[in-house]
Amino acid sequence: QKEVEQNSGPLSVPEGAIASLNCTYSDRGSQSFFWYRQYSGKSPELIMSIYSNGDKEDGRFTAQLNKASQYVSLLIRDSQPSDSATYLCAVNSRTGGFKTIFGAGTRLFVKA
Amino acid sequence: AAGVIQSPRHLIKEKRETATLKCYPIPRHDTVYWYQQGPGQDPQFLISFYEKMQSDKGSIPDRFSAQQFSDYHSELNMSSLELGDSALYFCASSLRVGARNEQYFGPGTRLTVT
Question: What integer is the mean pLDDT of B32-39?
Fold first, then answer.
């Protein structure tokens, strides 16, 4: 079992719709959770971080964390074609250091 | 705002040669991370430094070494290069605050080994 799992996709949604991206992790000691957006050939860009259970909203993005279920998600409202990218879930555990584990990423396509 | 700087942006080397990648973190960030990303793959953690000391080690080959200098810049040294080392190498930096360490990535160095 991979430490951080994501559906590789591709996930295709029409413009204006809500895109829902999901991630599960195996280390119960994980304390920090991040979503990165990566365009092809570019570096990952941090778009959301979440540290406690519940929802965190930033503009069109909402991150949701459920530590009991070891689950973190990202919702993108009013999806735009420019949101088409690979979204990487990243998890960091203080147990054994500050190593960050990335999921394989979910490719999102927003159709105009 | 200042970002992470990496140099060179592109590097072409032959098998068995050596390469040195440089990373300049965001000012006042205390931690530097190195990642390797192959085509279609997620970033693989190689190594990190906290306050100039090695902090964590990931899947870094023995042929690679890294260090962080007094000015906080870091270098990744790669020897006996193999074709499989061709990848994007990212450096990221963060400021650790408790359990929080939001990492900001540099633009990457694309290494091609021929």
Answer: 94
Mean pLDDT of A55-62: 97
Rounded distance, CA B47 to CA B29, Å? 16
Best mutation site among B42, B44, B56, B59 for testing chain A: the one with the most A CBs within 10 Å? Answer: B42
Predicted local distance difference test score (pLDDT) of residue A29 = 85
Q: Which residue has the tokens 């279920």?
A: A69
Over residues B95-111, mean pLDDT: 89
For Cα atoms A27, B44, B61, give the angle at the middle one, nearest 5 degrees: 115
Kindly give, in sequence order, each residue whose CB lies less than 8 Å from that of residue A39, ignoring residues fewer than 6 positions away.
A85, A86
Local structure of A65: helix, strand or coil: strand
Please state, in angstroms and rounded to a whole number, the distance separating the CA atoms of residues A95 and A101.
Answer: 13
**CB contact (8 A) between residue A32 and residue B56:** no
- Of B42, B88, B107, which has the smallest distance from its Cβ to A102's Cβ? B42
pLDDT at residue A17 tops 90 = yes
Q: For position B6, what pLDDT does the model report?
A: 98
